[in-house]
C-alpha cells in the first residue's frame, strides 16, 4: 500500500527468515566479529584478483542465508542485490553461481535497503515466496576503482572513510518466524553541491535527513516509535551534521536512538578515520549485529536508513558535485506493530 | 654542511607540496605536475642550478628537479643544434628517473602482490 | 574550482555547506607540514648520502651522480611499495613521500603491481602511467615551451 508520496506499508509484513554475513580480516579485528557467520584471514579468499574475491564474499553470504533458513537455491524466486564495482560484476557473477532469477541493483552504499525495500514489496504482493537480498563491498577492489592503487602513497584526510570488506544477505519470505519488514520509504537524489570525494558523510547527510523526515511524516509516526534509527555509513561527520539538521527542523530524534553502522563495525584504534563505509557496511551490520540484538529482545523497532553517494571517478574528474540518496526500511520484532 | 641543507631544502619543497594538498585541496597529480612546471620555470630563469650547488640532494631528489633536468637537456641540445635540439635533447639528462621507474615497476609486478 | 561553483549554488545548498563546514574534521595543516618536512628532508638526506657514495666509490662527479642516485632511490621505492610499507609511510609523511622522486617511482610501481590481475599487457602496461602520466606530460611540455622561448630569445635577441 502506498502511503503519502513514496512510502510503502507492507500489510503482510514479510519475514526475514535468516541472514548470512561474511567479513574480511579488518572486520575480524573489529568491534563485532561474533556477529559474522564467516570471517576471512586475508583479502584474496583464495582467488587471484580482488574482484573475484569480492564475488566469493557475496556468494558465501547468500549460501549461509539459505543454509540457515533451510532453503535450497532452486526455491529462491529472486535475488535483488548489488555492489560498488563497475557494472556490479561481483554480484552478477555470484548470482550466476546461485542460479536464481536476478535483479542487479545499484544504489552505491544504499543498495542494501534498496534491495530490502523492493524485495519486501515483491513478497508482500505475493510476487515471491522466497527472495534473497543483500549487498557487498571489498576494500581494495573499491579503492582500486574509485581512488588509488592500494600500494600508492596517497595521504587520506581525516574526513575519509574505510570501505568494509564484507557481504550481507537476507532471506525474505511471506511466512515463518523472524523480524518483519513493515514499511519502506524510497529516497530521492539529493545534491547539496559538495565535491570532495574524501568526505562522503558530509555529502550524504542531507539525503538521510530527507528520507527519514519523509518516512516519519508519511507513516505518521513520531521518532519515539522507533527504538533505533540507524544510518548506513554517515560516519562521524555525517552523523553530527544530520543531528544538526534534525534540531534545525525540529525533528525530535535523540542522540542515543540515532546510530550509524559505520561507527559500530570497527574498534577504536583501527585506522578508519571518520568511520566505515561501503555497500557491505550497512548489510553486514544490519543483517548480523543489529538483527541478532533484535532477536535477543534488546529492541523491538528499528528504522534502517542506508545512504549512498552516487558519484563515479569520472564524474569527479568532470567537476561534478556528489548527488546522494538514502532508502529507509523499518524492521520490527515483538511488541505492538502498526497495521 | 651540505647534509644539513639537503635536509632543510628538501623538507621545505615538501612543505610547499603539503600546503598544496591541505590548503588548496589539490590532488597529488595536480600538485606534482605543478611542482614539475615550477622546477622547469626556475631552470628557465637559471635559478635551479645554484639551488643544486647549495643544497645538493635537497634539490635533486624532489620532483622539481625533473622539470629542471628536462629544460637542461633541451637547452644543451638546442645550443648545438638550434630549435630542433629542444625536441631531441629533452630526456638526455633525466633518463634514469623514467627508465628505472618503468623497469622496477615491471620487476615489482612480477615479484609482488598488493597488500592493501 | 570553488568560487565559480559557489555562485551557482542555491541558498539552501550554500546554507547546508556552511553548516557542514562546522562539523567537518579540519585537516591538521601545521602537523602535516611538520611531518612532511621531516619525512621529505630525511629522504633527501638519504639521497645525498647515496650520491656521495657514488662519487667516492664509483667514477661519478657531482654533476653526473644525480642519475644513479635517482635510480637507487626508485629501487628502494620499489621494495617499500612491494612490501606494503610505502603507503603507510605516506599516510604519515604526506607530501614528504609524494614529492621526492621516490613518490614518482611509487606512482608508477603501485598501479603496475595492482593491475597485474588484468594481465601484463593491458593491465600492467596499460595502467602503469595512470598516476605519473600527468607529471611526465606537464614536465615535458613546460620544458618544451620554456626551452623554445629561451632558445628563440638567445638566437634572435642575443640573451
- Principal-axis shape of chain A: globular
Class derived from helix and strand content of chain B? mainly alpha
Q: How far is the first residue's CA from the last residue's CA of chain B?
A: 40 Å
Determine Rg of chain A (CA atoms, Å): 18 Å
Estimate the mean pLDDT confidence of chain B. Answer: 91
How many helical stretches of chain A?
Answer: 10
Topology:
The complex is a heterotrimer of chains A (339), B (116) and C (159).
Chain A: E1 2-3, E2 7-9, E3 15-23, H1 25-28, E4 38-39, H2 50-69, E5 78-82, H3 89-98, E6 102-104, H4 111-124, E7 130-137, H5 139-146, E8 162-163, E9 166-173, E10 180-185, H6 200-219, E11 228-231, H7 235-249, E12 258-260, H8 261-264, E13 276-277, H9 279-295, E14 301-309, H10 313-317, E15 324-332
Parallel strand pairs in A: 3-4, 5-6, 5-7, 8-13, 11-12, 11-14
Antiparallel strand pairs in A: 1-2, 2-10, 3-9, 7-9, 10-15, 14-15
Helix pairs in contact in A: 2-3, 6-7
Chain B: H1 2-22, H2 28-44, H3 48-55, H4 57-60, H5 64-81, H6 84-88, H7 95-111
Chain C: H1 2-7, H2 11-23, H3 29-57, H4 66-82, H5 86-93, H6 95-98, H7 101-114, H8 119-127, H9 133-157
Keywords:
heterotrimer, A: alpha/beta, Peroxisomal Thiolase, Chain A, domain 1, 2 domains, seven-stranded mixed sheet, six-stranded mixed sheet, 10 helices, B: 116 residues, mainly alpha
